[in-house]
Structure formats: C-alpha cells, structure tokens
Amino acid sequence: MRVRTTETNLDNGIAVRDAYRLNGRLHRDPSEGPAFVLRDEYDGSVIFLEYRWHGRLHRVGAPAFILYVGRFRSGTQAIREEYYVSGRLHRDPAEGPAVIERNGATGTVVDEAYYVKNALHRDPTDGPAEIYRNDLTGRITNASYYVNGKLHRDPAEGPAVTKWDDVTGEVTVEEYRVEGEIVTAPARPAKGRRDPGPSSDPKR
C-alpha cells in the first residue's frame, strides 16, 4: 500500500515533513520527486530531501540526497549533494563527483569525492578521486587517488596522496601507493612544490 504522510506546523500551516511510503518503506518514483522532505518549521525552506526507491537512496543522473543550509536554504544552492544508485554511492566519474560539499557561507566547494559502486574510484590520469579545499580560500589541501577503493597511482605519475599547508601552500605530505600499499618514491624533486590553487586541476 502506498501512503503519504505529512507533519504540519499547525501554528503557521507549514508542512515540516513530507514522506511517501510503500509497504512501510520510503518509496517514490524519482521522476515524480523526493520520497522524503524536511522543511524549516518557521519559514518552510527545505533543509534536506531524499530520493528513495523501496527504502534505498536511489536516483539516476542527479543527487539522491541534497542538504540545504544557511543562506542557501532557499533551494537554489545545496551545501551537500550525494549521488546514489540502489543504495550505493555511485556516479560515472566522467560526469563528476558522487559527493559534493560546499561552504554554506561562500559556496566554495570544500570536498568532492568520486565513487563507483560505493568505492572511491577515478582513473588516476583524470585526476584525484578525493579532493579537500580550504573553505575560505578554496585552495586544495588534500588530493588522494583511488582505484576500486584503494589508494593507487603509478609512482612515475606522482604521489597517490598529497597534502598542502593551507596557509603557505607548501607540500607537507606525499605518499606513493600502488593498490593500497606504500611504495618507494621515485627520485624526483618534490620540496617546494605548492598547492595548485583553487581553480587548478590537481593532477600533480
């Protein structure tokens, strides 16, 4: 049996929670809209929404979980988006990251992660699978390369993990890994390399 339940603030008429269920589990055809919506009880702005299919987070080609906070709560900008297919974090890396998080005040992307079937994954030649940025400057502070859930990058191409000082931009950590295992770094100059900056592709 399909059921829709709505929790309303009787003082102002705002629908605070809106849920669609099938046989007791959150369920709604994603093409029709989210299965669950939570709104601010005072102004009605959306706080977060979920697209679910037979209880599992699921949506093809768009985020299944969207969180709105602060000045972006109007619904025009999300601070966190997550892509799921059949309950697993998943998005074709060619289309973009499966997890995107923004600073609620500036809109700067501070975290992006590429997932395929619930595992961090991206072709290392295309760039890192996980990237963190300073939420104020937008400078990259951490870039990690993963293949099928394991830290991995051809050492000849560069480190699998690089961390930068968020003030000076200097490299503070470099790790070379192949299929998750630490390997010896190749002989090449590394000291003094700076963070590629907020608008650069951190392939090195």
Which labels suit this protein?
single chain; 204 residues; mainly beta; 13-stranded antiparallel β-sheet; 23 strands; 0% helix; 40% strand
Which percent range fits the helix content?
A: under 10%
Element order, helices and strands? Answer: EEEEEEEEEEEEEEEEEEEEEEE
Overall residue-averaged pLDDT value: 90
| Low-pLDDT segments | 71-75
Output the number of helix runs: 0
Q: How many angstroms separate the termini?
A: 54 Å
Please indicate the percent range of residues in DSSP E strands (runs of 2 or more): 35-45%
What is the global morphology? elongated
Give an account of the 3D structure.
It is elongated, with a radius of gyration of 20 Å. The chain is mainly beta and 204 residues long. A hairpin with a 4-residue loop joins β1 and β2. The chain has one domain. It contains no helices and 23 strands.
Write the layout of secondary structure elements.
Blueprint: E1 2-9, E2 14-22, E3 25-26, E4 36-39, E5 46-50, E6 52-53, E7 56-57, E8 65-67, E9 80-82, E10 84-85, E11 88-89, E12 99-102, E13 109-113, E14 115-116, E15 119-120, E16 130-133, E17 140-144, E18 146-147, E19 150-151, E20 161-164, E21 171-175, E22 177-178, E23 181-182
Antiparallel strand pairs: 1-2, 2-3, 2-4, 4-5, 5-8, 6-7, 8-9, 9-12, 10-11, 12-13, 13-16, 14-15, 16-17, 17-20, 18-19, 20-21, 22-23
